[in-house]
Amino acid sequence: MAAFTITHYKRRYYRAVHDLLFRARRVHTHLDWHETQHWLESQYQPIMRLVWQNWRLVGLLAASQPLNHAAWVRLVALDDRLNGDALSVMWDAIAAELRGLSVQRVGLLMMDDWLEPRLASLGFRYVEHVVTLARSGDELPPPRPNRVEIRAAEPGDVDALVSVDHAAFAPPWQLAADEMRQAHRIASTCTLAWLDGAAVGYQLSTLYMDGAHLARLAVVPNQQGQGIGGALLGDVLQRFFRRYVYTMTVNTQDSNMQSQHLYTRFGFSRTGYDLPYWEAAL
Questions:
Q1: Domain enclosing residue 38, as ranges
Q2: Which pTM value belongs to this model?
Q3: CATH code of the domain in which 68 resides
Q4: Mean pLDDT of the 99-118 span
């Protein structure tokens, strides 16, 4: 096999990247709120390495821009004829760049099994599963007393959403401001909970053909356990009921028993569709 060449990603390589993603069977994609085209062409350029053989793109690996000393592996693709050596070379180059940007951890949510056998050799370790829960029907538990005001989030509320998000979640699970802006733009419903003039929680949900998905539910730590999460969840479910949407799914970390207790109280149960989360310490 011909020797390969490693390069950085440049926008003029977009078509080659698109073609590789179309033809390769070994592809890992975890872009969250972005489509591939939008992510590659945004002002927040991915940290990416490309592998070429005879002027033909045969591999790529991309990480997100760092946020609070953390990043994600967002995109991986390998031509069917390429061996794992190229993956190691790309990862070594990206890991070195991320270290230079003060990144301490890199997360990877396993979407396809093909990548898993190679992760340990790259320095990743299994941490836990992200679990999926679902509910159906229009029955809700009795509301618990609270003083929060819940209203729809506006584009001007992105800073408040980010503030709540970063207080509630640890890296790498936080959303950057541009990710939050994109999430708010494509969400079916996004609401903020206010208490004494301060944003203390939010939820963000999307709508699919077969129901709704609760993509984010966050409450600031000093207000957790006060019924705010339940108020947000009950409110968004009622908003979907008014649109004749009676099913909802949600993902959460297997270790997050507080959120799972809330979802169980609202009739959610595990579906068995769980995704392994791996992490590399840099």
A1: 5-122
A2: 0.92
A3: 3.40.630.30
A4: 94
